[in-house]
Amino acid sequence: MVNLVCTGCGSLCDDIQVEIAEDRITRIENACAKGAAFLYALDNLNRRTTCLVRDREVPLECAIEEAKQLLSEAKRPLIFGLDNSTLETQAKAISLARKLGAVIDDASSFSYGELIQGLLEGSTQSGSLSQIKDKADLLIYWGSNPLHSHPRHLSQFSYYSYTDYDEAGWIPKVNLACVEVRETELSSICRPAFRLAPGGDREFIREILSIIKGGEGTDEAKAFLELIKDSRVCIIFCGKGLLYSLNGNFDLFTEMVQGLGQCTEVSVIPMTDEINMLGFNKSLREEAGYVNQVSFDGGIKHGTEFSFLEQVHKELPDCVLIEGSDPLSTLPQSLSRKLASAKIICLGSIITSTTNAAAVVIATAAPGLESNGKVVRMDGEEVNLLEVKKSTYPSEEEVFERLFMEG
Amino acid sequence: MSVPLELVLVTYHDGLLKIAETKEGIGSLYQKFAAVLWLSPDDLKLLGVNMGKPVELRSAAGSIVVQAKADPNNKPGMGYMPFSLYSLSLTSYDPAKSRFPDFKRIEVTVLPTERSITPISEIERGWIA
Q1: Nearest-CA distance from B31 to chain A in Å?
Q2: Which of B104, B106, B122 best tests the A interface by mutation, with the highest count of A CBs <10 A?
Q3: DSSP string for A257-315
Q4: For residues A67 and A62, what is the distance between their CA atoms, to the nearest angstrom?
Q5: How far apart are CA A104 and CA A293, in angstroms?
Q6: Quick one: A103 and A142 in the same domain?
Q7: Mean pLDDT of B8-23
Q8: Is the pLDDT confidence value at A164 over 80?
């Protein structure tokens, strides 16, 4: 058995063991069902085994040659994805974008971007889970159901991960709470579970802020504030439910966290599904000064007009290089239709809706299983991914290197 | 007598759906987990359909046919669907109104139907329409 960091979700569980025989995984220990499905998938029928150019199987060299051709001919190239890539691959992709004068963006521009920017700039406090977890006595999942999105999050990093936890007779020393719009597996074990109307998060935050500032608020908001006041150290895990409800604008949330910080120590951790969204945002910020939505056309420009959604909505890019992402399975159909009409170059290890629509598909090794690299976990901790299985596929980093050198 | 229902639809992350997609791609198992609308028992009764029967969902963005199921934890007037290609057929993106696509508060009309569940292939064909 060999140790492995699971790249099935943003938790990056590092206690996974796999047995490998003839370059195939034959046994997995400790992984959740989601992680195990992901690891086994790399050996099953959904594995992208060949490179394609317009649905025709071609050798790697031909696919790279075609990708290079499309990128060099493009007047408005766009590079998108990279949230499931290593830091090394992301660095190469940013260099390629700079060289091509391309727009570069990731899924954070329509998810956690603004929150992560606040964390990187220090306006919102965060911290390594290994450091803050043992101090925390209140854990709040807000708009997140980790039992589905990050199945081992509670046992690896939060409620069930305390050293004195014992299934037979554990008396919790930490409170578990959630803010949700529906009953979930998580809300059933939370005391308390705050239930909001869909889209009601902003109003709930306003109520809390009002009480902090000495004004009036609902009983629910008062109870939330009391819960915080009764704790010494609180961690708020932010899920997509919260960010979609806030429409990605975290100003009010940040103000609330700062206000709560007068009562107790509050840290915020984004429940990113991707394995390295923070890494991409950090890398691009270091290179270009912004966490996402950057154009390298004639210098460095930034703005919502360079967001992937806006670019696709306005049908601006004539060639889209997508890596480690499946936007056709995550965008509204009106946008998918527009994206599918562009020339797509797709890098990845799995067959997806996006690879099916791509003009060029380059089959790559899976990071953390078939190639090495570093990623940044949701709490900012850098995690080393190691190659544990031989692969005939090139690493994503190698493909970007070749596109850069030959482009 | 059945009536069309106006609902607010909320999408959510379903781990089982993700596992199905990872194991088998976008196929029949994916459809089983994705093409489901969870309602309150009262709303299901108002619609006049039995548990597991097809209903048509219409939004400003499109329409699909999925299975209707009741969950006693759900409030009347609310519908819940896993985030999938099905829910994405009902999701709009209008940057003049919102920075993000509408994943969490989609206004839909629900009607009983004799039609079958919308096949995945039909949704995928929509991309090249």
Answers
A1: 13
A2: B104
A3: HHHHTTTSEEEEEE--SSSSHHHHHHHHHHHHSSSS-EE-TTS-EESGGGSHHHHHHTT
A4: 9
A5: 6
A6: no
A7: 93
A8: no
- Spatial separation of the C-alpha atoms in residues A225 and A220, rounded to whole Å: 9
Residue that finishes a domain, picked among A245, A270, A295: A270
- Give this complex's ipTM: 0.91
Pick among A148, A183, A243, A320 to test the B interface (most B CBs inside 10 A): A148
Let me know if residue A83 belongs to a domain. yes
For A225-274, the pLDDT digits (tens) are 999 999 999 999 999 999 999 988 899 999 999 999 988 999 999 999 99
Do A158 and A306 lie in a common domain? no
Does one domain contain both A299 and A378?
yes
- The string of pLDDT tens digits covering residues A77-103 is 999 999 999 999 999 999 999 999 999
Summarised one tens digit per residue, pLDDT across range A105-117 is 999 999 999 999 9
Domain check: are A147 and A180 in the same one? yes
The boundaries of the domain holding residue A247 are 113-270
Indicate whether A166 and A85 sit together in one domain: no
Residue ending a domain, among A270, A302, A337, is A270
Query: Which of B26, B104, B127 minimises the CB distance to A199?
Result: B104
Distance of CA A347 to the CA centre of its chain: 17
Whether residues A336 and B13 touch (CB distance < 8 A) is answered with no
